[in-house]
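Board notes (copied after class):
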Amino acid sequence: MFNFFSELKKLVKKEKFIDRYNIVNMSGRILYVEGHTGLCQLSQTLITFKFKGGMIIVEGSDMILGELSETTIKIVGNIKRVEAM
């Protein structure tokens, strides 16, 4: 069976965080992340959360959490920038 994330990881193995989380940005309106380990900051313009070995910063406007579970997060809004640190 074809697994999108597994195939993507094979193509970009050099990325230092690629085995720690999966992230999908849908047209700057929906961001879906698998593998987070905790929410750090939440506002309509800035959302930060941890993953194993780092942090993800999401900047935008009118952002809300569409879904939050133990390992997945879905952010809905006008997503301008996503950065892994």
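Comment from the instructor: The CA atoms of residues 39 and 49 lie 4 Å apart. The first strand starts at residue 22 and ends at 26.
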